[in-house]
C-alpha cells in the first residue's frame, strides 16, 4: 500500500466503488462503537452510496494511485434527513476510510477540501452526526460534542450518534 492518493469530486460512476468502501469501512470500524445487533440492522442502509451526494458536487473521493477509492466524504447545505437549510450552516456527510488506509491522512485531507469549499460557499460552521466510534476523529478536527442523538436509518432503525459542531 502506498500513501499516495488524490482527492476529486465524486460522480455517479463512483456508486459501486463508494458502496464497497462504505461496507469495508463501516463493517470493521464501527464494531468498536456498536453492538452486533445494531450494526446488523443499520449496515444495509448506511453502506449504500447516496446518489444525491454523488451528484452534489460537494462529495469527494480519495483515489489511490492504483485508481482504487480508499476514502470518501463530503458536505451539503441541506440537513440530512429533512433537507432543511439554515444560513451559514453546512453538514458533514458520509465520511469513510478503508481500514487498510487508516492513519494515511485520508479523512483529514477530504475534510480540508470540504472546509475550503464550504467557506467559499458562505458557510460559517459545520455540524455532523458522528457515529460513536468517529467522535475522536471529528474532535481531532476541532469539532465540539453538542449532545447524544438518535439518527433514523431507513426502515425505522435508530442509530445512537453524536451531534458535533465546528466553526470554519
How is this structure best described in words?
With 168 residues, this protein is an alpha+beta fold. It has a single domain (5-129), classed as Aminopeptidase. Helix content is 32%, strand content 33%. The protein has five helices and seven strands. The chain has helices at 15-29, 36-46, 51-56, 106-120, 135-140; strands spanning 5-9, 59-64, 69-76, 89-97, 125-131, 144-153, 157-167. A seven-stranded mixed beta sheet has the order 1-2-3-4-5-7-6. Strand 2 and strand 3 form a beta hairpin. The longest helix has 15 residues, at 15-29. It is globular and about 40 Å long. 34% of the residues are buried.
CATH homologous superfamily, by name? Gcn5-related N-acetyltransferase (GNAT)
Which fold name fills CATH's third level, the topology?
Answer: Aminopeptidase
Biggest sheet character: 7 strands, mixed
Estimate the helix proportion, in percent: 25-40%
- Unreliable runs: none
Output the number of helix runs: 5
Give the distance, in angstroms, between the N- and C-terminal Cα atoms: 32 Å
Listing every helix as H and every strand as E from the N terminus to the C terminus, the arrangement reads EHHHEEEHEHEE
How large is the share of residues in beta strands? 25-35%
Count of distinct strands = 7
Provide mean pLDDT, rounded.
Answer: 94
Question: Which value, in Å, is the CA radius of gyration?
Answer: 15 Å
Classification by helices and strands = alpha+beta
CATH architecture: 3-Layer(aba) Sandwich
- In order across it, which strands form the biggest sheet? 1-2-3-4-5-7-6
Task: Report the CATH C-level class.
Answer: Alpha Beta
Count of all domains? 1
**Silhouette:** globular
